[in-house]
Amino acid sequence: MSNGMDLPAQVTVNTASHSSGSETLIVRVDQPVEGIDFNVHTLLRGTDGGLITPTSRKVECRWFRSKSRRGCSFENCPNSNRIATIQNLQNGLRYCSNQCFQSAFHNKNKKSSKSSSNSILVTIDEKDRKFISVEPFQEENGWEIISNEKTYVPSKEDVGYILRVECRAVTPDGRISAVANSKETPIVVGLPKPAPPRSLFTNPDSAKLRHQMGMKFDSSKVRILSYNVLADIYATKQLYPYCPMWALSWRVRRKILLREILAYDADIICLQEVQQDHYTEFFYKELEGLGYQGLYKAKTRVAGKIDGCYTLYKKERFRLVESNTIEFNSVARAIARTNAFEQRNDALRRLLKDNVAQIIVLERLDGDMSHTQGGNTLCLANTHIFWDPEYSDVKLWQTHLLLQELERVVRNRKNIPLIFCGDFNSMPSEAVVELLKSEKVSETTKPNDPCNILPPVQSITHSLGLISAYEHVTGNEPRFTNYTGHYVGTLDYIWVSRDSVLPVSTLLIPNEKTLRGTDDTPLPNTRFPSDHLALCVEVEISPTNAQAQTLSMNQYQMQ
Ligand SMILES: [Zn+2]
């Protein structure tokens, strides 16, 4: 940037009109966050008030940082971008609230075990603020120049300070056509620290079970992650008013999501609610550059932004053998064409919900089963079932259909092991989970079916022999996998073939106190970037063999 250096430090409106005639440059800034690209949003209007296309002008910026710290000095402050107005006159540190002041004070005393300043603590209450004061910030300290680039990435040193940006528009021949009023940002907030590590729970009976099942399991474990990452199109202020806007923004959430996903170091990743543009612009670049190979399938909605399922596997461990997708809309239309629905139009209206599923077959490259015929392949499925609680019939219809397709794929390949992940939008007590788990649906749990889309209850069955990995390892499904201000419940599951996949360990779901953190809010919040929690399990996979297929449910339950 050649002209950036000589921009005057104090820019006024006069300069703008002097240098240009009358183009107007309007600058808007977001919340700056440590480590996240911070772009200014600019709008340029010409002499006639019309918008000037950004390509015909180059916008140059210069960044400053305030010399005085503005944010709260308490390291666990829940209001990290609020101006600190309470000052400890003894050491000059400022806090955003009496609570932060006291917490910082307690922390300091704990660390240094100094009792000399106890006298301050006893004086702090709302009426008597002898040692604290409320003082406006003065500009006397001035500003320090920090960058001449258009995009600035705030550093750790910027946290707690505010930034100021000065921008100007330059024509292709180098003439300054407009200078914007300088703009101050909110206080730079630190990138939220990762949530505390989740503990890995290992089923103490898994070795015994392996022996009882009489099967040769492949001891090199496979780690599976299933995670609904909350698409940006659904991450609205209306749905999640308790989450600070900056933490809800995609530019911040994507960084925290990626950090979390990579930390699990899973061999197989099944993501749901991956927005299509974020797949191409972000996830694809980040994950497929790190040894993963992936397949993306968007929902079938035609208009507007859409999300979908994204299934990835580590290239060094697996090779893709076959891949299928299911578009539930297409299946519904195909069934309608055969006149199988009694109320054709009503049934279609009810069923066309755009949901999709992915079914792929992978060959293991590193297992010790490659000598066993068919023993080194497995089937992997990923889905996101329709969400609306008023549509339990549609959820069951989608799940039933998907299970039929999975049976076809698995049987065609001599009963290869199956791993089936997803957000099923169904609680453990609901028909969808009953079908997955017990291979049938009872009359009592069968949902209301206003458009007669479901077959007779005795035909809603399968024989895939599935168990839920979490329930198998811990004895129960998690208490919740979705934890928001308007809903708390278990909706996500990892299902595996009980005869050939042995779930060994799971990452436990954090407790409510950990989830809610110091800001005491449901999800998403500053440390948990989605409304769902990631499920992560380690399994051992056995080769397909005749013995495995003859194991009955009863034998299996004998522990
Ligand atoms: Zn504070």
UniProtKB/TrEMBL annotation:
Residues 225-532 form the Endonuclease/exonuclease/phosphatase domain. It holds the Pfam family Exo_endo_phos. It comes from the Eukaryota. One of its GO terms (molecular function) is 3'-5'-RNA exonuclease activity. This is Endonuclease/exonuclease/phosphatase domain-containing protein. It comes from Aplanochytrium stocchinoi. SUPFAM superfamilies: DNase I-like (SSF56219).
